[in-house]
Amino acid sequence: MRTLKYGLLALGLTGLVACTQSPTGRSQLQLFSSDEIAQLGAQSYNALKQEEKISRDPALNSYVQCISDDLIAVLPDQWAQQQWEVTVFESEAVNAFALPGGKIGVYTGLIEVAENAAQLAAVIGHEIGHVIAQHSNERMSNQFAAGLGLQLGGILVGQEMDSDTAALVMGALGVGVQLGYILPYSRIHESESDELGLGYMAAAGYDPREAAELWRNMAQQAGPNPPEFLSTHPSPQTRIEKLEALAVDAMSTYRQAPQPSCRKP
């Protein structure tokens, strides 16, 4: 029991010293340094560039770079002044990503689904939002904390129960941590990035109403979805309704912004 008490005390103290706030004011746990996370992002990006086919289409590359530059220009100074690298991957995957360290990747499959520059800006802005809110750090920290908690719980269970009962209890604890802790944080991350990304696109002069339109297109492309409480993403309808509400508030920002020149090839 002494081991468990000391372990829980250490976990609690770690949480206190590593608690920060996201750009929306939400408390978050960050146990790793920004440099460590940026190095991991750069490693992942370089690996992807080795594994995936990179598009050499000058029109597509110019289009994606144009939108990315517009969004980067309106980011908070720390991020706007950072050097960002943008790569277009030739793939049917309807996907894009941004990684710590200033790395952006966009797949040609997404460019086809996004009907205009504003819809593509919604996705790139969303992905940049993950980086600025340091969701990678928070996700890794949450998983580390959850794993430590399960290990400490295993010590207690092993002391109090026979091996068969302990195995069942630990299995249930693992499911509980996944559904009650890690997955909800993933959905929070997605919703937070939607909010941040929509703000960036509006400030860059892209119609924020197009974000909801994009996700309607995405929902039509997707197959059957798991229940929302078992998913790392909000359900498409939940997401669309939230984006529509956010767009109403962002319209004044959009109307005051200069109109972008990026056009889909």
List the helices and strands and how they pair.
Elements lengths: L1 H16 L1 E3 L5 E3 L4 H18 L6 H16 L3 H4 L4 E5 L6 E4 L3 E5 H6 L3 H16 L2 H26 L2 H41 L5 H13 L14 H21 L9
- Order of SSEs: HEEHHHEEEHHHHHH
Which strand order do you get reading across the main beta sheet?
3-5-4
Strand content: 5-15%
> Overall mean pLDDT score?
79
Q: What fraction, in percent, of the residue positions are helical? A: 55-70%
Structural class: mainly alpha
Folded structure, characterized:
The protein has 265 residues and is mainly α. The chain has one domain. It has helices at residues 2-17, 34-51, 58-73, 77-80, 108-113, 117-132, 135-160, 163-203, 209-221, 236-256; strands at 19-21, 27-29, 85-89, 96-99, 103-107. The strands form 2 sheets. Strands 3-5-4 form a 3-stranded mixed sheet. A two-stranded antiparallel ribbon has the order 1-2. The longest helix is centred in the C-terminal third of the chain and has 41 residues, at 163-203. The chain is globular, with a radius of gyration of 21 Å. The model is unreliable at 1-17, 152-162 and 165-183 (pLDDT under 50).
